[in-house]
Amino acid sequence: MLTRIDHVGIAVASLEDTIPIYEQAFNLKCVHQETNDRQGVREAMLLVHDGDTGGSYVQLLEPIREDTPVGKFLAKRGPGIHHIAYGVHDIDAALASLTVSGFDLVNKTPVHGTSDSRIAFIHPKGLGGVLTELVEAAGRH
Ligand code: V0V
Ligand code: CO
């Protein structure tokens, strides 16, 4: 079902301050930036590796308000790893399978993700305390 690690989501107070640090530390390039109002974030994607099944990235996340998932996370825990995201070919099939298995889906149907991907979150409680996202990249269905 999973094709790759698509990204590791990292909660930060400031994209502007953190992007250059990641670029310099690992010689990464920031290949995309976007504001996602529904998710309450400004995000930056730094390409780690472009593989056969799609890219893998570091995703830096800055909250656009305090009452958002990343805003609450930052206030409670400070900056750090917020979620892991796995690539899938068919997110509808993956969600159907997880529903049958009884997992607690934050999104029962896919929502809009970075670069027009379709994404869905699975609650951290059922997965070892790790907020987990599935990503079906645009055009790779
Ligand atoms: C909260 N908890 C976490 C967590 N956030 N545990 C692990 N990782 C996280 N990131 C734990 C928290 O410690 C509490 O545990 C419990 O969940 C409830 O916390 P809360 O602060 O009251 O938070 P809730 O319940 O209001 O919301 C938690 C969920 C929320 C996971 C439901 O964060 C959510 O809907 N996340 C999905 C959307 C999202 O994260 N979007 C931003 C990224 P205790 O204290 O009860 O044990 S957007 C993105 O990645 C995009 C656009 C993309 O990739 O394209
Ligand atoms: Co993400």
Automatic annotation (TrEMBL):
One of its GO terms (molecular function) is metal ion binding. It holds the Pfam family Glyoxalase_4. Residues 4-137 form the VOC domain. Gene3D superfamilies: 2,3-Dihydroxybiphenyl 1,2-Dioxygenase, domain 1. Keywords: Metal-binding. One of its GO terms (biological process) is L-methylmalonyl-CoA metabolic process. Signal peptide: none annotated. NCBIfam families: metmalonyl_epim. Belongs to the methylmalonyl-CoA epimerase family. This is Methylmalonyl-CoA epimerase. It comes from Pseudofrankia inefficax (strain DSM 45817 / CECT 9037 / DDB 130130 / EuI1c). The lineage of its organism: Bacteria, Bacillati, Actinomycetota, Actinomycetes, Frankiales.
